[in-house]
Here is the input.
Amino acid sequence: MVIDCKHVWDHISGYLDGELSAEERAIVQKHLEHCEICSAILDSTRNILILTADERVFELPLDYSARLHARLDEEIRRLRA
Amino acid sequence: MTAGGNPAGGGKPEEARRIASILAGNVEEFHELIRPYERSVYVMALALLKVEADAEEVAQEALLKAFRNLKSFRAEARFGTWLISIALNEARSRLRRGTGVKLESLDEPEEAPGHISPALLRDWREIPSEALERLEVRAALQQAIAALPPIYKEVFLLREAQEMDIRETAEALGISAAAVKVRLHRARLMLQATLAPQLRRLNPGRRRFPWS
Here is the structure.
């Protein structure tokens, strides 16, 4: 079965998560073998997901944790007072 | 906080024991209970509020609220998703109170119709994680994620940055697994469309086809 690129785009997320049926997966894979544009879309999407999962993207404010636990200590003291 | 730790790995027996102990009066243990989740709570608050100081305040409020209401936590839920849902509620009510932050389309219609077209490239040169040491690469990622409509941003961050699975993401947001999948797909393609061309320009390793 031949499918067009747009159909493959609809399945990119499911493909990356391994959620496609065996049949859908085979169809998408076959298309990817000969379509460099769809392959590049898949590779770039996967690459972007790996980068966004990195903790360096969202850094915590300096001493965030210390301030949080200090507030919690206050709350615990209040509870016991 | 360890890199790549899974904040959603709830249902841990050790965690359940600790919660029982806190409820029995050993309240100090709450410090340790929340440590694995401090980061996720902050990141999710920041996703909605955009201002670091506001996000920190909301994260603190949410975690204190969790402390005060720990007895209402239901053991069949995951502690991590429970915390996230408290944080998201706090952030939303802060937005609704309108403390200087514009009420962004929080109640925007479900899935906007139509296709999302990805950026078309002829090849892709892998961008290694070391590229994140560069400020402009981090900034590009932050801005692209920040620009996502809230319903997509929430799903995307829970799934990608917090590494929750689809079920946990659905639980934290109070939506169906099917809705999580649809939103996740759209968020990923939207980010590909924005980021692929930008990152490609920023990637110094590129040699072939500089014009494509």
